[in-house]
Amino acid sequence: MKQWIIKNLSGGKVLLLFVLANIVLAVMLMITIPKTMAYANGMELLDVMPTGYSADYIRALFEALGQEGRAVYLYNQIPIDMFYPFLFGLSYCLITGYFLNKLGKINTGLFYLCFLPIMAGLADYMENITIISMLYSYPELNQFSAAAANIFTITKSAISTVYFCTLMIIMVVFAFKKRTISS
Fold first, then answer.
1. How confident is the model over 138-172, as pLDDT tens digits?
2. How buried is 22 (Cβ within 10 angstroms: 0-12 exposed, 13-18 middle, 19+ buried)?
3. CA dihedral of residues 171, 172, 175, 177 (deg, nearest 10)
4. What CA–CA distance (Å, rounded) separates 59 from 141?
């Protein structure tokens, strides 16, 4: 895996994947999430609740969405969100590798930071799978699925937060080093 990452650290590839990931994110934020939330009577979708939710919240949300809103969630929002974790994980893995390589740190233990966005993407997939399962089984709500979805949402959010803080530090170090060299 390390060799594949190193082989794909060209600026063009990294930029292309970054743009693709953020186009998908923009589609979700501007189109599919608002479209789904229009049915939810002001309630937030599970995907966008970083601190989690309870089984009672899931039940209330699915009830508020109604049959049509649940279908929009299942057949519009979730399919788009099945592309995003892959693009997020891959693009941000390579972005991290790109900056670590520029800092001469790609062959150190810092390399493993490249896996944070992949881990967040995997948690996002697990979140999506549990949401799909709950939408299919509604009005039945399996307590295990509800708890698992909550854990995956919190895990995705926590890893993403750690990742973006880490990326900010890496970029500050990169900018400082670049400025010091050019001075």
1. 999 999 999 999 999 999 999 999 999 999 999 99
2. middle
3. -110
4. 7
